[in-house]
Amino acid sequence: QVQLVESGGGLVQPGGSLRLSCAASGGDFSFLTMAWSRQAPGKQREWVGFITSDGTTNYAEFVKGRFTISRDNAKSTVYLQMNSLKFEDTAVYYCHSGARWGQGTQVTVSS
Question: What is the pLDDT of residues 91-104, one digit of tens each?
């Protein structure tokens, strides 16, 4: 079964950038569609975007033009590059594929 481990979260100032990583193991990563979602305090989890096995991406409107999802199949890793971060991007970010979810990584945008 696929296991997912996120990393790269932290504290960043508004307007700053952060890159999250999600390392997969236990499955054939190159065939997987990988997605990112997030959950802010007191709010429901929301979908951020995904990348298919052939590299096609799609994003939620609120991150378009700021966030980019990429993948490195040789490293079985998917990335979430976040630029122009806003206070409202503060959340726990999760990578997932099908029913498999990582444990999440905290991103805090604060001055």
Answer: 999 999 999 999 99
Tell me the two tokens of residue 12. 């960043």
Considering Cα of 28, then 30, then 31, then 36, what sign does the dihedral take? Answer: positive
Q: Which residues of 30-59 are buried (b: 16+ CB within 10 A; e: fewer)?
A: eebebbbbbeeeeeeeeebbbbeeeeeeeb
Q: Judge residue 83's burial from the number of C-beta atoms within 10 Å of its C-beta, 0-12 exposed, 13-18 middle, 19 or more buried.
A: middle
| pLDDT tens-place string over residues 44-66 | 999 999 999 999 999 999 999 99
Task: Dihedral sign for Cα 105, 94, 36, 78, please.
Answer: positive
